[in-house]
Write a structure and sequence with these properties.
Radius of gyration of chain B: 24 Å
Number of strands of chain B: 6
Largest sheet of chain B: 6 strands, antiparallel
Helix content of chain A: 40-55%
Number of strands of chain A: 5
Mean pLDDT of chain A: 91
Structural class of chain A: alpha+beta
Shape of chain B: elongated
Order of helices and strands of chain A: HHEHEEEEHHH
Number of domains of chain A: 2
Shape of chain A: elongated
Helix content of chain B: 40-55%
Number of helices of chain A: 6
Largest sheet of chain A: 5 strands, antiparallel
Oligomer: heterodimer
Chain lengths: 229, 209
């Protein structure tokens, strides 16, 4: 059975160079291969994209179904060599046995009071450290699988509208570059599919109409609305 | 029968994939902007300021908040010739001022209304294509669902974003079927599928445990 992506005789005349035939074959293979490798990543981002767009869907609710654990812990005094919020936060996390991405949510006004959050998919740590008394109040919130998946969708360690946030956990960096790889893979898959479609002359017209319609609608939102309003 | 089903799935995979491809490109390209908090300046970023007076204001302004306030301010914004998705409205009672952020992908407008004089200062900033793509990627998003999607076009965008997600799911499932029919590709395909699953679940496990 011929595949939709297999070149037809018309698209592949005898005079066609071997290079082109090889390009077509590898383009088709790589389209499959990339799709199969990225399958679970694509499903994660597609499903969580829907869930994030519909925060009222109760089945995917995670925050109100969280479990909270509160504790108070003593820490050893932070030495003078720990300069800056990041170094101090890392030392407190080390002592508490917490790993994750640090989130700066408050501006420090009192040198002895140090509040910050640590986040990783499924876990939220709210840390309030009293550096004068060397005590930490810790709230640990754990969310369900939907909560893990939703955080994975947005877990980059940085925010466009908050320059204070930067990646400070190695696994966040790994995940961020994984998201880049998935995006690059998707771009490749789109481009390779356009090439395969173009190699099917009998499908060109209808395909062009559909692609044109999609591009027109997408273009309207990217640029057109600014022209209209 | 099987051949007809195969051809149907193949054509749907092709045409639905073609329709969704510009949207998939938009979401995929904007990933780089969002993951690295980096917006390339595509086109010049401009800012303009204008003043509009004699604006109509809702009579029960003091009692309104949230979505009803946004709906009531629609006529005011229409008169000021400001269009777009209205964000969180700040009512500064002491200063008798309203600050209304209005967004069109690629444009941010801040309307500051002096309630007593019914005069508005409107600052419009053209933020460019990259910002438009990042805005669309994040819209509507999970925050403030009660006030979001108050502009028809953003409502339409939600439908399109949802449609893109459903189409990606369909195209991936139909792609699996089309791959599985090709017996010659099965072995390599299974290896890659397994490697992808291992990478995905391995990473997800490491991040969450």
């Amino acid at each position: 059975m011929r595949s939709a992506t297999e070149p037809t005789a018309a698209a592949n005349p005898p005079a066609a160079s071997r290079l082109r035939v090889r390009l077509e074959r590898w383009n088709r293979k790589l389209h499959y291969y990339a799709g199969l490798f990225l399958l679970f990543f694509m499903w994660l981002f597609a499903v969580t994209g829907l869930v994030l767009n519909h925060p009222t869907w109760s089945f995917a609710e995670s925050w109100t179904k969280r479990t909270d654990t509160n504790s108070e812990r003593a820490i050893t005094a932070l030495g003078p060599e720990l300069r800056g919020d990041l170094a101090q936060a890392r030392e407190i996390m080390r002592q508490l046995g917490i790993e994750g991405e640090i989130l700066w949510t408050t501006t420090r006004t009192n040198a002895d009071q140090f509040d910050f959050q640590v986040r990783r998919p499924g876990h939220y740590y709210f840390i309030k450290a009293d550096l004068a008394l060397n005590r930490v109040t810790l709230r640990h919130s754990e969310v369900n699988l939907w909560g893990v998946m939703k955080v994975l969708h947005v877990f980059s360690g940085v925010q466009l509208d908050d320059v204070r946030q930067s990646r400070d956990w190695a696994l966040t960096t790994v995940w961020a570059y994984s998201m880049d790889a998935v995006a690059a893979g998707l771009i490749f898959m789109v481009l390779s599919s356009l090439y395969m479609w173009w190699e099917l002359p009998q499908k060109r017209l209808l395909g062009a109409v559909i692609l044109g319609l999609g591009s027109l609608i997408c273009g309207l939102f990217c640029s057109g609305l600014r022209w209209l309003f | 029968m099987r051949g007809r089903f195969y051809r149907l799935i193949r054509d749907l995979h092709l045409y639905l994939g073609l329709f969704s491809s510009p949207f998939v490109l938009l979401f995929a390209i904007s990933v780089f902007f969002l993951v690295h908090a980096w917006l390339p300046k595509i086109g010049s970023e401009t800012s303009t300021t204008r003043v509009v007076s004699a604006l109509p204001l809702p009579v029960n302004l003091q009692r309104l908040s949230g979505r009803p306030l946004i709906d009531a301010l629609k006529a005011t914004l229409e008169k000021a010739d400001v269009h777009g998705e209205v964000g969180f409205v700040r009512h500064m009672v002491k200063e008798e001022k309203l600050t209304i952020p209005v967004t069109i992908p690629g444009r941010e407008t801040i309307v500051t209304i002096n309630i007593a004089s019914r005069e508005a200062t409107i600052v419009t900033r053209e933020t460019g294509l990259a910002d438009a793509m990042a805005t669309l990627h994040r819209s509507p998003g999970e925050h403030a669902p009660a006030i979001r999607m108050n502009w028809f076009y953003m409502q339409a965008w939600r439908w399109l974003a949802d449609t893109t997600a459903y189409l990606v799911l369909f195209v991936s499932v139909s792609g699996i079927y089309l791959w599985y029919v090709l017996r010659a590709e099965r072995r390599v395909g299974f290896v890659l599928l397994f490697a992808g699953a291992l990478s995905f679940f391995g990473l997800a496990y490491a991040l969450s445990h």
